[in-house]
Amino acid sequence: xxxxxxxxxxxxxxxxxxxxxxxxxxxxxxxxxxxxxxxxxxxxxxxxxxxxxxxxxxxxxxxxxxxxxxxxxxxxxxxxxxxxxxxxxxxxx
Length: 93
Prior knowledge:
alpha+beta; Alpha-Beta Plaits; 4-stranded antiparallel β-sheet; 2 helices; about 30% helix
C-alpha cells in the first residue's frame, strides 16, 4: 500500500460540489482506498481559469491505496463534470 495526497477542485456551486465529493468518496471506497485525512479548503480563486471558471471549491485528501489505484481513478474523474481538476501525489514514506 502506498500513501497518496490528492487535491480536487470542484465547481463552486454547492450542489455540484456535494455531488462531486460524494462521487469521489464512493469511487475511493469501491477501489479499496483508506482515507486517513480530509480537509475542506473552501472556495478560492484559481491561478488561471479552469474550464472557464476563476473560482473553485478546493478539497484535500490523504489516503493509502494499492499502486495500481491511480490510473482507473483518473479515467473516472476525467469524465466527471463536477470535478474541474485534481492532482494525485505519492507521499514518500
